[in-house]
Design a protein that fits this description.
By secondary structure, the protein is α/β, with parallel strands linked by helices. The protein has eleven helices and nine strands. Helix 6 links the parallel strand 5 and strand 6.
Length: 333
Amino acid sequence: ETYRLAKKVYKLLGKEENIQMTEGNQTHTFGYPLRDAASRFFAKEFGFKYQEEPQKFNRPNAEMLRCLKVKSVLDLPNEKSVQDFIREKALALKKMRSERKISRNELEKQLRSVLNIPVETPIVDYRVWQYTRFDKKILYCTGIETEKDVFITLFRQKGRYTLDPEKKVELYLPAKGCRYELGYLSPLAKDFELWGLDYHGIGDSAAFGGIGEVYWGDYMIDGCCVSLGKPFVGKRVGDILKTVKLMKTNGAEEIVVRAAGISVIPAIFAAVLTDVPFKVVLHGDIPSYTEHACSKDAPIPQSFIPYNILQVADLDELVKLYSERFIINKDKK
């Protein structure tokens, strides 16, 4: 539609030949119709001789594309790989943090700056939604309006449509999504009511499939958030803080957050930065950004890594420093 209207303007100005659009009915790749149109454009504008791209050609193999011998640069004296630089930087920052003296207030101030989290968590609005089914199980849903017209999904395992939690609540943060996990769980303590939260990028609150879709759901969206000064992991921490405060406001007196998989990361930050008391249950080993930086496997998705976080603190350091806010079960996964 935009192109059609723009073409009319160009035609009125007598320059219709200066605007055109080529559509390639292909997948994500830069297919032949688009390449051919680009070649024709550059040939015309820059005076190149246009040559039609052959439709069949021998695809070059890795050896044909290699500019240098294997490890030729790394074999030079004092050369390092990118992984070496990252590892050295991470370990140097760990040493720096171990030698400094910093108060809890100052540490929290720096964390809020890195994550873009306000000092006081606002009380947000919510809407009661229709229930959902998964594998013959019913989950009652509430939409938490964390920003204007932006909702995340809060699930209730049993009971009612209303947001009227019992006095003791266990809030489950899933590894991939509450729709697939909450129905099979029981609260860790019998006198607690089990709820689940799909924060930004997880389960029903995910875009393009969430963290399982690495390209769309992780670093591409994370890059957009960072460019706006609002790291994606900070939004997730804010989701948890706003939900906990809303449940406290609506009747919950004691809240325990239970984190699974990658959700351990925003849960740790939330426990440190909360303005209402709650504890976090962690299972297994505590993740570490320093260990992540030293690993070639890159086990932590980009959207869960705040920029400059190792200038402030690592996850395992926060758990140790705020140990009274965590319940750690290393045996049970």
